[in-house]
Amino acid sequence: MESQPAPTILIVEDDPIWQTNLQILCEAAGYQVIVTPDASAALHQSELLQPPPLLALVDLELLSSAVQPSPYEDGFEVLTALREHGLYVVVVSGHIHEVRAALVGRPEIRALVDKDHFRRSGFAEGPFLTTLRTAIAFAEAAQRAEGQSPTQQARLYNTPTQ
């Protein structure tokens, strides 16, 4: 019996330290990881990979957005584009309290992770991995539901944010 490959997680993070830390945590938990520094690279990878990533970890405040009117514009563009590609997202940000209201009602978002939690806990993996595993399980269930009925297929777009 062939074993299924580990789910792939797409990390969209511009800070090399955060890229490394998130990658290490995800790989240690047994997931395959693709790291991208910005919206453009993330969208390119999500289109190239077969099978596509199951979940994305997205930092909303990407450095490439420094020329944008809003420091979160690139991050929100990534969320919208990943939703169109059928990916669920865990938002990882040091400014969760500033963006929380703008994220309410976005069904692609499965969880919010505050980077300050990592700073305080020294990258303790427990709560983060619990959040990650819950989001992966939801994405896997939604993927299994594809093709079963129009209601189940629409689940991605009609499920409230946790």
- Looking at the overall shape, the CATH architecture is 3-Layer(aba) Sandwich
Mean pLDDT: 78
Low-confidence runs of at least 5 consecutive residues = 64-72
Spatial sequence of strands, sheet with the most strands = 2-1-3-4-5
CATH topology: Rossmann fold
Task: Based on Cα principal axes, name the global outline.
Answer: globular
CATH superfamily descriptor: Response regulator
Kindly provide the radius of gyration, computed on alpha-carbon positions and rounded to a whole number of angstroms: 15 Å
Fraction of residues in helices? 40-55%
Distance between the termini: 35 Å
Extended strand count? 5
Give the total of domains.
Answer: 1
Q: For this structure, what is the CATH class?
A: Alpha Beta
How is the main sheet built? Answer: 5 strands, parallel
Helix and strand run: EHEHEHEHEHHHH
The total count of helices amounts to 8
Q: Beta fraction of the residues?
A: 15-25%
Structural class: alpha/beta
Give me some keywords for this one.
alpha/beta; Rossmann fold; 5-stranded parallel sheet; 48% helix
Fold and architecture overview:
With 162 residues, the chain is α/β, with parallel strands linked by helices. The protein has a single domain, classed as 3-Layer(aba) Sandwich (Rossmann fold), CATH 3.40.50. The protein contains 8 helices and 5 strands, in the order βαβαβαβαβαααα. The chain has a 5-stranded parallel β-sheet with strand order 2-1-3-4-5, sandwiched between helices. β1, α1 and β2 form a beta-alpha-beta unit. α2 packs parallel to α3. It starts with 7 loop residues before the first strand and ends with a helix.
